[in-house]
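Example record

Each entry pairs one chain with its bound ligand, pyridoxal-5'-phosphate.
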Amino acid sequence: MSTAGTHTSIPSLTETDPDIARLIDAEQKRQDQTLEMIASENHTSSAVMAAVGSCLTNKYCEGYPRKRYYSGCEFYDEVEELAIERATRLFNCRFANVQPHSGANANVGVFFALLEPGDTYMSVVLSDGGHLTHGSPVNLSGKWFKPVHYPLVYDESRPDYGYIDYDAVEKLAMEHKPKLLMCGYSAYPRVIDFERFRRIADKCGALLMADIAHIAGLVAGGAHPSPFPHCDVVTTTTHKTLRGPRGGLILTNSEDLAKKFDKAIFPGTQGGPLMHVIAGKAVCFHEALQPAFADYARQVVTNAAALAEALTGRGWHLASRGTDNHLMLVDLSRTDPDLTGKDASLWLEQAGIIANKNTVPNDARSPFVTSGVRLGTPALTTRGMKPPQMQTIADLIDRTFRSKGNADDLKAVNADVRELCRQFPMGH
Ligand SMILES: *Cc1c(COP(=O)(O)O)cnc(C)c1O
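Structure tokens for the complex follow.
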């Protein structure tokens, strides 16, 4: 991939649509010149992008391999079978549906397969790190079903402060008897105890679901415990730590459930599968099955630990006091009561550091303002950065947070960000 800002690799686009070609070039340049620290983002490989940009976009393949509604699917059957086989090998399970267009679609498929409208299920308090699709009142998961939310440990005198409050999960589960118990989060910095969740699910008679959208790459690379064999169903995205194309995935060991999920995705909730994206997923799984991917996953975690320590050393408070995985939440209010997540993320952007505002556990501010910033290391690690760079970046972030939004200060930070980016060009 060129860093010069010209896309000679797609001359047909430049010719046909110079407006879009120019915007793609500009976006490539933005990615090259900024530090991508949104915990859910990554830089996928040129091999994945080649598959996603291929002629496989042209075909209707409604149905599943060898059971299609249209002719001409012979090569697509092989593509999807390869994707399925690789996904099950990568995650150590028996069945995979590789057709969900996104993580949200994978979750809709699971709800459609396992729940009736009005059924009760359990997930974390959304402002404590949950996802929109885990019961938000504006989402189908909250409108058509009855979510009961479990808390984190908020008591700072406890050693498990900021962890899932497993005792509270058990108590609520016995009280509400949910059909489905969900774990897996969007902003949780600790390891998930799948075994403990299994015991609770067994005790209250629920099916256990893990949504590993964020940590899929860590699980695949052995840097986070696997949800299998403990979970009945696992959903994920393929574009976060797993570093593939944008998409979703449903995994299970149960043949009976696998059949239900297949029906729930097609014809239940989706039409024709995105076969070019499924090819991209197959490439991504192939890459993640290589030994080098385990090194990547470990490095993501090592880098996050180094960044967490460096930020703490500069006086910043992290939710749960640290991280075990690829992300951390800086609770700004502990250090500067006036600094909001909204301002901090805006200043970071002006400095060329891309991160998002985020509620912190027990946040007093609304989700539009917040008291926190979420930081992740997956994309930085893809660029080849290591703990020494995490020290440098902690310093850049610290300067930004303390800048009070001063334009000259932010400009100076941005110059250093660009220099660091130059030293770590996008690989591909
Ligand atoms: C990102 C995420 C999703 C949704 O993925 P999309 O591809 O954006 O639909 C679902 N669950 C969790 C926990 C996530 O973090």
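The longest strand covers residues 120-124.
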